[in-house]
Specification:
By secondary structure, the chain is mainly alpha-helical. The chain has helices spanning 2-10, 14-28, 33-49, 53-63, 74-89, 101-106, 117-124, 138-148, 152-169, 173-177, 181-188, 193-205, 209-222, 226-241, 244-258.
Length: 259
Protein backbone atom coordinates (compact mmCIF):
# COMPACT_ATOMS: atom_id res chain seq x y z
CA UNK A 1 0.00 0.00 0.00
CA UNK A 2 2.74 2.47 0.95
CA UNK A 3 4.66 1.70 -2.25
CA UNK A 4 1.50 2.22 -4.30
CA UNK A 5 0.83 5.53 -2.53
CA UNK A 6 4.38 6.66 -3.31
CA UNK A 7 3.84 5.88 -7.00
CA UNK A 8 0.60 7.87 -6.97
CA UNK A 9 2.27 10.78 -5.19
CA UNK A 10 4.93 11.05 -7.89
CA UNK A 11 2.18 11.15 -10.54
CA UNK A 12 4.59 9.90 -13.19
CA UNK A 13 2.24 7.15 -14.38
CA UNK A 14 -1.30 7.83 -13.05
CA UNK A 15 -2.79 4.86 -14.91
CA UNK A 16 -0.33 2.52 -13.21
CA UNK A 17 -1.33 3.91 -9.82
CA UNK A 18 -5.03 3.42 -10.65
CA UNK A 19 -4.37 -0.18 -11.66
CA UNK A 20 -2.41 -0.91 -8.48
CA UNK A 21 -5.10 0.63 -6.25
CA UNK A 22 -7.76 -1.43 -8.01
CA UNK A 23 -5.80 -4.62 -7.27
CA UNK A 24 -5.31 -3.59 -3.63
CA UNK A 25 -8.97 -2.72 -3.14
CA UNK A 26 -10.12 -6.07 -4.55
CA UNK A 27 -7.52 -7.95 -2.51
CA UNK A 28 -8.41 -6.53 0.91
CA UNK A 29 -12.11 -5.99 0.19
CA UNK A 30 -13.41 -8.63 2.58
CA UNK A 31 -11.03 -8.64 5.52
CA UNK A 32 -9.47 -5.28 6.41
CA UNK A 33 -12.07 -2.62 7.19
CA UNK A 34 -9.60 0.10 8.17
CA UNK A 35 -7.26 -0.23 5.19
CA UNK A 36 -10.15 -0.85 2.78
CA UNK A 37 -11.66 2.53 3.66
CA UNK A 38 -8.35 4.29 3.14
CA UNK A 39 -7.72 2.63 -0.21
CA UNK A 40 -11.30 3.17 -1.41
CA UNK A 41 -11.09 6.95 -1.04
CA UNK A 42 -7.68 7.15 -2.68
CA UNK A 43 -8.82 4.87 -5.50
CA UNK A 44 -11.85 7.09 -6.16
CA UNK A 45 -9.72 10.24 -6.31
CA UNK A 46 -7.28 8.66 -8.78
CA UNK A 47 -10.14 7.43 -10.97
CA UNK A 48 -11.67 10.92 -10.98
CA UNK A 49 -8.28 12.43 -11.82
CA UNK A 50 -8.06 10.03 -14.77
CA UNK A 51 -11.43 11.22 -16.07
CA UNK A 52 -13.24 7.97 -15.22
CA UNK A 53 -16.23 9.71 -13.68
CA UNK A 54 -18.72 6.97 -14.51
CA UNK A 55 -16.55 4.38 -12.74
CA UNK A 56 -16.37 6.62 -9.67
CA UNK A 57 -20.13 7.14 -9.59
CA UNK A 58 -20.74 3.40 -10.07
CA UNK A 59 -18.41 2.54 -7.18
CA UNK A 60 -19.94 5.23 -4.97
CA UNK A 61 -23.41 3.88 -5.66
CA UNK A 62 -22.32 0.35 -4.78
CA UNK A 63 -19.99 1.01 -1.85
CA UNK A 64 -21.02 4.42 -0.51
CA UNK A 65 -21.27 3.02 3.01
CA UNK A 66 -17.47 2.83 3.05
CA UNK A 67 -17.56 6.61 3.19
CA UNK A 68 -20.06 6.64 6.05
CA UNK A 69 -19.16 8.62 9.12
CA UNK A 70 -18.50 7.62 12.68
CA UNK A 71 -18.32 10.81 14.73
CA UNK A 72 -16.12 9.09 17.33
CA UNK A 73 -13.26 9.19 14.85
CA UNK A 74 -12.58 12.81 13.98
CA UNK A 75 -9.62 11.93 11.76
CA UNK A 76 -11.92 9.73 9.64
CA UNK A 77 -14.38 12.59 9.30
CA UNK A 78 -11.66 15.01 8.20
CA UNK A 79 -10.54 12.53 5.56
CA UNK A 80 -14.06 11.72 4.32
CA UNK A 81 -14.82 15.44 4.15
CA UNK A 82 -11.73 16.03 2.05
CA UNK A 83 -12.52 13.12 -0.29
CA UNK A 84 -15.98 14.59 -0.82
CA UNK A 85 -14.56 18.03 -1.62
CA UNK A 86 -11.91 16.65 -3.99
CA UNK A 87 -14.43 14.53 -5.89
CA UNK A 88 -16.87 17.42 -6.13
CA UNK A 89 -14.17 19.66 -7.58
CA UNK A 90 -13.28 16.89 -10.05
CA UNK A 91 -16.91 16.89 -11.20
CA UNK A 92 -18.23 13.88 -9.29
CA UNK A 93 -21.39 14.17 -7.24
CA UNK A 94 -20.96 12.38 -3.92
CA UNK A 95 -24.03 10.95 -2.22
CA UNK A 96 -24.70 12.98 0.93
CA UNK A 97 -21.63 15.07 0.13
CA UNK A 98 -20.08 16.54 3.26
CA UNK A 99 -19.64 20.09 2.04
CA UNK A 100 -21.90 22.30 4.15
CA UNK A 101 -20.32 24.98 6.32
CA UNK A 102 -21.05 23.14 9.56
CA UNK A 103 -19.74 19.75 8.48
CA UNK A 104 -16.63 20.96 6.70
CA UNK A 105 -15.32 23.44 9.23
CA UNK A 106 -16.56 22.03 12.54
CA UNK A 107 -13.90 19.34 12.69
CA UNK A 108 -11.00 21.58 11.65
CA UNK A 109 -11.74 24.39 14.12
CA UNK A 110 -9.11 23.05 16.58
CA UNK A 111 -6.55 23.64 13.81
CA UNK A 112 -7.34 27.37 13.75
CA UNK A 113 -5.64 30.12 15.76
CA UNK A 114 -7.55 30.33 19.03
CA UNK A 115 -7.80 34.13 18.90
CA UNK A 116 -9.68 33.92 15.59
CA UNK A 117 -12.02 31.07 16.47
CA UNK A 118 -14.84 33.32 17.79
CA UNK A 119 -14.76 35.36 14.55
CA UNK A 120 -14.60 32.20 12.41
CA UNK A 121 -17.58 30.74 14.27
CA UNK A 122 -19.50 33.89 13.39
CA UNK A 123 -18.39 33.78 9.74
CA UNK A 124 -19.18 30.08 9.31
CA UNK A 125 -22.33 30.05 11.42
CA UNK A 126 -21.25 27.30 13.81
CA UNK A 127 -21.38 27.15 17.62
CA UNK A 128 -18.23 27.78 19.63
CA UNK A 129 -17.34 27.87 23.31
CA UNK A 130 -14.14 29.85 22.67
CA UNK A 131 -14.06 33.34 24.13
CA UNK A 132 -11.55 36.17 23.89
CA UNK A 133 -9.49 35.67 27.04
CA UNK A 134 -6.17 36.88 28.37
CA UNK A 135 -3.97 33.95 27.33
CA UNK A 136 -4.48 34.76 23.64
CA UNK A 137 -4.02 37.93 21.56
CA UNK A 138 -7.17 39.43 23.04
CA UNK A 139 -7.00 42.66 21.04
CA UNK A 140 -6.97 40.78 17.73
CA UNK A 141 -9.64 38.38 18.99
CA UNK A 142 -12.07 41.12 20.02
CA UNK A 143 -11.48 43.24 16.93
CA UNK A 144 -11.83 40.28 14.56
CA UNK A 145 -15.18 39.38 16.11
CA UNK A 146 -16.38 42.99 15.96
CA UNK A 147 -15.16 43.32 12.36
CA UNK A 148 -17.27 40.34 11.33
CA UNK A 149 -20.25 42.04 12.96
CA UNK A 150 -19.66 45.13 10.82
CA UNK A 151 -17.64 47.45 13.09
CA UNK A 152 -15.68 49.67 10.68
CA UNK A 153 -12.96 50.66 13.15
CA UNK A 154 -12.39 47.03 14.13
CA UNK A 155 -12.27 46.03 10.46
CA UNK A 156 -9.53 48.59 9.84
CA UNK A 157 -7.50 47.22 12.75
CA UNK A 158 -7.84 43.61 11.60
CA UNK A 159 -7.04 44.45 7.99
CA UNK A 160 -3.87 46.34 8.96
CA UNK A 161 -2.78 43.59 11.36
CA UNK A 162 -3.26 40.63 9.02
CA UNK A 163 -2.08 42.36 5.85
CA UNK A 164 1.07 43.44 7.66
CA UNK A 165 1.76 39.86 8.87
CA UNK A 166 1.11 38.26 5.48
CA UNK A 167 3.00 40.98 3.63
CA UNK A 168 6.04 40.28 5.82
CA UNK A 169 5.72 36.60 4.91
CA UNK A 170 5.85 37.51 1.22
CA UNK A 171 2.22 36.99 0.17
CA UNK A 172 1.58 39.02 -3.05
CA UNK A 173 0.19 42.46 -2.28
CA UNK A 174 -2.30 42.39 -5.18
CA UNK A 175 -4.20 39.60 -3.45
CA UNK A 176 -4.06 41.18 -0.01
CA UNK A 177 -5.30 44.57 -1.16
CA UNK A 178 -8.40 43.12 -2.80
CA UNK A 179 -9.34 40.70 -0.02
CA UNK A 180 -12.29 41.25 2.26
CA UNK A 181 -11.82 41.15 6.02
CA UNK A 182 -13.58 37.78 6.28
CA UNK A 183 -11.24 36.33 3.66
CA UNK A 184 -8.23 37.74 5.48
CA UNK A 185 -9.36 36.21 8.77
CA UNK A 186 -9.88 32.80 7.12
CA UNK A 187 -6.50 32.66 5.36
CA UNK A 188 -4.60 33.89 8.44
CA UNK A 189 -6.35 31.48 10.83
CA UNK A 190 -5.06 27.97 9.92
CA UNK A 191 -2.25 26.59 12.08
CA UNK A 192 -1.82 23.44 9.98
CA UNK A 193 -1.43 22.83 6.27
CA UNK A 194 -4.15 20.16 6.44
CA UNK A 195 -6.69 22.73 7.61
CA UNK A 196 -5.55 25.16 4.91
CA UNK A 197 -5.87 22.46 2.26
CA UNK A 198 -9.45 21.66 3.32
CA UNK A 199 -10.42 25.35 3.33
CA UNK A 200 -8.78 25.79 -0.08
CA UNK A 201 -10.85 22.91 -1.45
CA UNK A 202 -13.98 24.38 0.12
CA UNK A 203 -13.28 27.70 -1.62
CA UNK A 204 -12.74 25.97 -4.97
CA UNK A 205 -15.94 23.91 -4.75
CA UNK A 206 -17.93 27.03 -3.86
CA UNK A 207 -16.44 28.94 -6.82
CA UNK A 208 -14.38 31.40 -4.76
CA UNK A 209 -11.16 31.15 -6.77
CA UNK A 210 -9.70 34.30 -5.22
CA UNK A 211 -9.97 32.86 -1.71
CA UNK A 212 -8.51 29.56 -2.95
CA UNK A 213 -5.58 31.43 -4.49
CA UNK A 214 -5.04 33.33 -1.24
CA UNK A 215 -4.88 30.05 0.67
CA UNK A 216 -2.41 28.66 -1.87
CA UNK A 217 -0.18 31.74 -1.69
CA UNK A 218 -0.18 31.78 2.12
CA UNK A 219 0.57 28.04 2.17
CA UNK A 220 3.41 28.66 -0.29
CA UNK A 221 5.02 31.07 2.19
CA UNK A 222 4.18 29.50 5.53
CA UNK A 223 3.48 25.74 5.29
CA UNK A 224 5.66 23.37 7.31
CA UNK A 225 7.78 21.05 5.20
CA UNK A 226 9.47 21.82 1.91
CA UNK A 227 7.37 19.44 -0.19
CA UNK A 228 4.06 20.76 1.12
CA UNK A 229 5.27 24.33 0.64
CA UNK A 230 6.38 23.56 -2.94
CA UNK A 231 3.01 22.01 -3.77
CA UNK A 232 1.15 25.05 -2.47
CA UNK A 233 3.47 27.25 -4.58
CA UNK A 234 2.83 25.09 -7.64
CA UNK A 235 -0.90 25.21 -6.97
CA UNK A 236 -0.84 29.02 -6.72
CA UNK A 237 0.88 29.19 -10.13
CA UNK A 238 -1.62 26.76 -11.65
CA UNK A 239 -4.57 28.71 -10.23
CA UNK A 240 -3.21 31.97 -11.64
CA UNK A 241 -2.73 30.41 -15.09
CA UNK A 242 -6.00 28.47 -15.04
CA UNK A 243 -4.25 25.16 -15.77
CA UNK A 244 -7.08 22.90 -14.60
CA UNK A 245 -5.33 19.58 -15.30
CA UNK A 246 -2.33 20.65 -13.25
CA UNK A 247 -4.56 21.99 -10.48
CA UNK A 248 -6.18 18.56 -10.18
CA UNK A 249 -2.84 16.76 -10.15
CA UNK A 250 -1.47 19.00 -7.40
CA UNK A 251 -4.67 18.66 -5.35
CA UNK A 252 -4.31 14.86 -5.61
CA UNK A 253 -0.71 15.08 -4.40
CA UNK A 254 -1.72 17.31 -1.48
CA UNK A 255 -4.44 14.84 -0.51
CA UNK A 256 -1.99 11.92 -0.51
CA UNK A 257 0.50 13.94 1.55
CA UNK A 258 -1.98 14.95 4.21
CA UNK A 259 -4.07 11.79 4.53
Amino acid sequence: WLITRTTALRMEYPENAISEFEKLFNKIFTYDYYLRNYIFGEYLILLALGGRREDVERLLEKYHLYLSLDEKFVRFIQRFTTISLVLNYFGVKVRKAITSNNEVVLYIMPHMRSELQPALSKIWGIPSDVRCVEFMDRELCVNAYRAVEGDGEAEGFVRRYIVNELDKAGVPSDLLEGAGVRQLIEVYAPRTSMARFILLLRALTSGDERLALLHAEVGCKSADGQLVKKLFCDLAKALRSGDEDNIKRIITKLYFLHF
